[in-house]
Amino acid sequence: MSFKALKFTNNRNADIMGTLRIRIKEYFDSKKIARYGDSSMVRKTVIMLSMYLIPYILMISGLVTGTWIIFGLWILMGFGMAGVGFSVMHDANHGSYSKNEKVNKYLGYLINLIGGSSVNWKIQHNVLHHSFTNIEGYDEDISIGKLMRFSPHQKRYWIHRLQHYYAWFFYCFLTMNWITSKDFLQLFRYNKMGLIKGQNRSFGSLLTELVFSKILYLTLFIVLPAILLPIPWWQTLVFFFVMHGVASLIISLIFQCAHVMPTSDYPLPDDAGNIENNFTLHQLLTTANFSPKSRLFSWFIGGLNYQIEHHLFPNICHIHYGKISSIVKKTADEFGIPYNVHSNFYKAVKNHIIMLRDLGRYDDLSKC
Questions:
Q1: Rounded Cα distance, 157 and 137, in Å
Q2: Which residue among 269, 272, 281, 334 has the highest number of C-beta atoms inside a 10 angstrom radius?
Q3: What is the tens place of the pLDDT at every residue in 12-54?
Q4: pTM score > 0.90 for this model?
Q5: Residue 110: which residues within 8 A CB-CB, separation 6 or more?
């Protein structure tokens, strides 16, 4: 099973990316700022890591002993997990946190600290999801098994009629899937597809790193708490699952509300591997923004409510997305291209539920 890249044709609105690049460059030049993070990113990194690690230290050190306080700290760690993923690791693995490649490299490894794999994440997210957004058979973000139907091109089963109800349960297991089977299955699959070569690492070294990172993670966040916390071991295990459930639900909703929406396109390649639209048009038609006026919400989720800007310019740090969004929208309007945005997160989630419902009821969404 080898990987065959697709080609985006440039016969429609071919000049839009060139126009966007010129305007975005003019913005950064006029402000005399770099496209990377600044001191605010450093402060955010400290805050997010503190939200994740300080509760852990308080528990392990024995400074807190009450069961309900410990439970609350695990929940706070769940928010910290999501925050580290959204606001630190994500930019680092895109190379947009800092112009220093080593800073990006080592901060990118923070995903290992929350149970994932930096290498697998970069392949699934940077290579497959960003390059082939919403394309069945390529974008693994919309292919998570038969229990969920995220694309109209996937086979519909009777159980999908209920997926807008049970999706919430499965969304809570996203990160648990990382630390158990998914990362191992992905590594073997990506090796067969030839995608490991682009990481300048051998399969053996990556497998060794993955095994040791999982052992270290499970030791730190299950074994040690089970031994040291003044509560029964099974409570520690339950609280660990709750932490992952909190982080998983947040992460799942943010990303699903950006792509599995009624406004999203799901293009298919022709027999020659060509996609009808150019890459910029493809991203605009498969992606949606939400909550553009919620500054605190945007701060916590690393600017990922501006998914359009992120998909068009992943090499720009998320702290700039709010500012450049007006440029992107203006340009899209000039070219007559939809710029999909939902005014708040509630409406985005509501529309995502509608999309799940329709995907569960209809083979062809045009008949909705």
A1: 18
A2: 281
A3: 667 888 999 999 999 999 999 999 999 999 999 999 999 999 9
A4: yes
A5: 49, 84, 85, 88, 89, 92
